[in-house]
Write a structure and sequence with these properties.
mainly alpha, Cytochrome Bc1 Complex, Chain D, domain 2, 3-stranded mixed beta sheet, 9 helices, two-stranded antiparallel ribbon
């Protein structure tokens, strides 16, 4: 179980940028804007945001040597070099032909450069590193890559977003487009803009990835969720990030 620390090292001195800074004509809303003042205050205060415990652990992992290569992430990536990275993933890495998300890119580096085994999906270590990287893009606009190879993946993600699934015969769009802003079980239905991942959900009492949230949605639709690391999740993530283009990163976020 993670416990708070008085000092969070470098992570506490990163820019405390407001969670969302959008044009007044932009009708898109992040999950942060749909929360009550108490939860917004929790997210805004790094000393109260429980996700910052994962960031602290991620900073330690970043500096720790691992694998047969006995290298740390910090050996290759200097201070400030990861700024903006979380705002442009998923992307297709060099010498690859399919996209990976931020967690996938972390594991590629472990395999290729550290000669270490990949971290398991939703493991604390992988979420720690993702949270540490995501914080370094806080306040920056989501900027999906303009790589033409991603077009087909995004198109599949859009098709999946609009497809009815499960026993309830619902699509993602039925909730997050048609009924966004309405109440479901006392909670506001968000527009599903992935500005805050990985997020600390009070419902989970833990940090989780966007993939975990997508699985939860599928289970809520009474549909069989895809396995972790399935390509369908990458397609959806690409489409969702494209929908949120220009919105500000507020990760690691707090949500109900």
């Amino acid at each position: 179980m993670r416990t708070p620390s008085v000092a969070l090292g470098l992570v506490m001195v990163l820019l405390a940028t407001p969670a969302v800074a959008q044009d007044g004509k932009d009708q898109r809303r992040s999950g942060y804007q749909d929360m009550g003042p108490a939860l917004q205050k929790m997210q805004d205060d790094d000393a109260a945001n429980p996700a910052m415990l994962y960031v602290q652990a991620g900073e330690s992992l970043w500096k720790r040597r691992a694998g047969a290569a006995d290298k740390a992430c910090a050996d290759c990536h200097g201070p400030g070099s990861m700024k903006g990275v979380a705002a442009r993933y998923p992307a297709i890495p060099p010498n690859a032909d399919k996209p990976v998300d931020l967690e996938g890119r972390i594991n590629l580096c472990r395999i290729e450069h550290q000669k270490a085994t990949p971290l398991a999906a939703e493991s604390d270590e992988l979420l720690d590193l993702a949270a540490y990287l995501a914080l370094q893009s806080r306040g920056m606009p989501i900027t999906p890559p303009k790589d033409p190879r991603l077009v087909e993946f995004r198109a599949r993600g859009e098709q999946l977003f609009d497809s009815r699934l499960g026993q309830l015969n619902l699509s993602c769009a039925n909730c997050h487009d048609d009924n966004a802003g309405k109440k479901l079980g006392g909670a506001t239905i968000p527009q599903a803009h992935p500005t805050g991942y990985p997020i600390y959900r009070l419902q989970w009492q833990a940090l989780g990835s966007l993939e975990r949230r997508l699985r939860n949605c599928m289970i809520g639709m009474r549909a069989e969720p895809f396995d972790y690391d399935s390509p369908e999740y990458l397609d959806l993530e690409l489409y969702l990030m494209d929908r949120a283009k220009g919105m500000a990163i507020d990760a690691p976020a707090v949500r109900p």
